[in-house]
Design a protein that fits this description.
Helix content: 55-70%
Low-confidence stretches: 86-93
Distance between the termini: 24 Å
């Protein structure tokens, strides 16, 4: 059985990466403080959401969960491993009493 990756996890993972790219571009070019003060908390919240949500999924492997800890691209790495299906632990089948 494969675990489905939720839509809100996809959204947060993309928000994490996009906000990091925009923040780094801002720092390396014009360094506008309003952009930094707006995108810093957005990036932080998206990162924390991805990490917490990844660790709460019970059917994923520990390796996939640790990949979510990578700043910036961790959410997308986690989703890739989750969608690939190789990182999902097989569930034990319960015997139905007759």
């Amino acid at each position: 059985m494969r675990a489905r990756s939720p839509l809100h996890l996809h959204t947060a993972a993309h928000a994490e990466l996009i906000s990091l790219v925009v923040m780094l571009t801002n720092v390396l070019t014009v360094h506008l403080k309003p952009i930094s003060s707006l995108l810093g908390p957005i990036h932080g919240c998206a990162y924390l959401f991805v990490v917490i949500r990844a660790w709460r999924l019970q059917q994923t492997s520990t390796r996939a969960k640790f990949s979510a800890l990578v700043p910036g691209a961790g959410g997308l790495l986690f989703l890739r491993q989750l969608d690939r299906g190789g990182s999902v632990r097989p569930q034990e089948e319960e015997a139905i009493p007759s």
